[in-house]
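Ligand: alpha-D-galactopyranose. Inputs:
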Amino acid sequence: MTLTNIFVFALVGAAVGIPGFAAGNSGEELALTPPMGWNDWAHYQCEYTAQTILTNARALVKTGLAARGYKTVTIDDCWMQKDRDSQGNLQADPQRFPQGMKALANAIHSMGLKFGIYEDSGYATCGGFAGSGVPNGGGKAHFSQDARLFASWGVDYLKLDGCNVYIPPGSNKVKARHKAYSAESAALKATGRPIVFSESATDCCRFDPYYYDVLSWVGQYGQLWRIGNDVATFRASHPDRPRFHSVLWNYAVNLQLGRFQKPGNWDDPDFVIGGDSGLSLAETRSQMALWSMMSSPLNLSSNIGKLSSEAIAILGNKQVIAIDQDPLGKMATLVRRTPVMDVLFKRLDGDEYAVAVLNHGSSTIQVKLHPVEFGFSTNKACRLRARNLWSGTHSYSSLLSANVASHDTEIWQMRASSSCGVPTRTGAIVMVVPPGKHWRQKHPNERHPGIQEYGRCLAAPGHVGACTGAAAERWTVTPEGLLKSGEHCLAVINGKVVMQSCSTGSTEHWKYNLAGNLIDSGGQCLSTSDDKDRVQSLSIQTCGHNPPNQIWSLPN
Ligand code: GLA
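Predicted complex:
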């Protein structure tokens, strides 16, 4: 076993969800709150020049978005030539960047902004340009040489993609990426310049068992990592094509990955395309509210100069950004999921909380939320003092009520009166199921299924199925590792999963690990009977290598 393997084993083996985990990360001092900025990709793809970048940088300053925190301007793929120069250095495309990269970096820095750039851990970028990784067929990687070049240009942020990674004989796609990302991390550190490192956890292993292996170690090397699929890009030939479904899909995927996240280490569900064509203002509010509830990086990717004043007000909403940038860096908990609505709850620093309600259905919904749903006590005197962050209206009541328009998301910041007590970890327990064979056969070209395709809810007394929002889907995770629904606890008796009164016997204690397994006192995993698209019964089985019927996401 190598040193690295021992570390990974220790991390994966540690019980993490109850009450949380603290893994060492050498990059902790960088990106202690989620990075914010702008990137050209989702709007321009390869159709840009230095002028495009500078125009957007100026627009960030002029609109006031930079002052709100959107400071890192990153140039994505296609900035370079296909080949290196005779010294092996990367070369910027002279058509797009006639003054070179250093001049552009200087111009961006002189606006008080930071400068980010894109590369790839393979032999070629996703667009086919020179990558930093091992050449196809083997040879010497260029991580150190490229990192030195980036540092000499004044790069502050590197997005390293995961396309075209060469896998030498005896290695595999996970090991090859592990080696590449650790080499890049070391190369960036060796430059002596603080450079935020954004990795990709998607390209090799999205939705296969190795996904969770990659997620278990990316945080050791970088500050953020892409998950999910690419959000739908703007196409000039089809400017109004709807893009919200791609936002919702990445949200659904990201929401289940809270255990990998902490200050200095962020899951990245991709760009904020709110404000651009293909998203309405309601959908723009939704993306901002959802990304902020998840403490996600806020990298805008639109034509900033073309944003409407309404969109700028949404993207620049100070209070919503403060929810995103909260120093605890928590992922929201899914409190309730119905076929059209998600209710989220997030703990903030200083006894404050945030709540959001997403309506992804086609008509307005009325919602009433009781403190007990967020894990507060059932004491009748409990009152919530809430401020709606879009309308600015205040309420002080024993419940939170609202009308949420189709595709909109309401978001509140709130305090609870002392009789509410401290909230327990309460919400849905979701089995993360990637879209099944049947769904993929029906939709061969669709990369962004609906929210309901991704997670299924654990319901008392003991089955897993489509989330309905019923009270039986509400669980409390206690500090001792009990999974409680009402007055009953999930337990294992004679190898069977049952609900029984909570006596805190060892048959009811569960450990939660980074892979997302719930492990009983006998060391076996809470599983569903099979992985077909229907209601499933619970069973206890030997823990496998991340099979989908053993991956769970708990309230945070
Ligand atoms: C991948 C990434 C995108 C973008 C493109 C560039 O698809 O996920 O964000 O960087 O490559 O080619």
